[in-house]
Amino acid sequence: xxxxxxxxxxxxxxxxxxxxxxxxxxxxxxxxxxxxxxxxxxxxxxxxxxxxxxxxxxxxxxxxxxxxxxxxxxxxxxxxxxxxxxxxxxxxxxxxxxxxxxxxxxxxxxxxxxxxxxxxxxxxxxxxxxxxxxxxxxxxxxxxxxxxxxxxxxxxxxxxxxxxxxxxxxxxxxxxxxxxxxxxxxxxxxxxxxxxxxxxxxxxxxxxxxxxxxxxxxxxxxxxxxxxxxxxxxxx
Length: 236
What we know:
By secondary structure, this protein is an all-alpha fold. The chain has helices at residues 3-46, 49-79, 82-91, 93-111, 124-135, 139-176, 185-222, 224-235. It has eight helices and no strands. The protein has one domain. The two termini are 25 Å apart.
């Protein structure tokens, strides 16, 4: 992946994630101070002029604070490369994709009779460089790869926020232990968590694994001679 495209993908992830952050923060705030927030909103509509103005200022301040907190969370996540850390620690999709690329490139080199294909086995990083040497020329498939990876990393954040919201809502429900909307709020977060996790696991991740296979097959079939020459030069 080129540095320019990677930077653009990171920027796109930040733009998309901020809306999810704001959504989950608002849900959690309603769980904690739901009655107070509803009361403030009611006062802005039906209260006296002074009460309405005060309530409006408080609501505006809360919205501004949510926006600022969302930006802080997003910038922090981007600065520490949080989505890559989470993937590397828990999901390991990038590692599996790298393993697929490594093995399939060896198979492709062997199939075109490239001298030195056996030497590729213990040189995973160099094989990755060889793959991107060809893959960066596949404009359509390359754009599709960035689209899939961007959605995957956004889904990672959504899963984490939904999990945090689920834990928070369960704790609040146990602490309050009364029949109100907080009793059912864990279900909302759990549904979001399950829907995004299942969609990621059984649809998006499969696409991430299948795409490099398609790319390598195209390299083998349309640029077999060039692949043979590159393998001989780099690994022969």
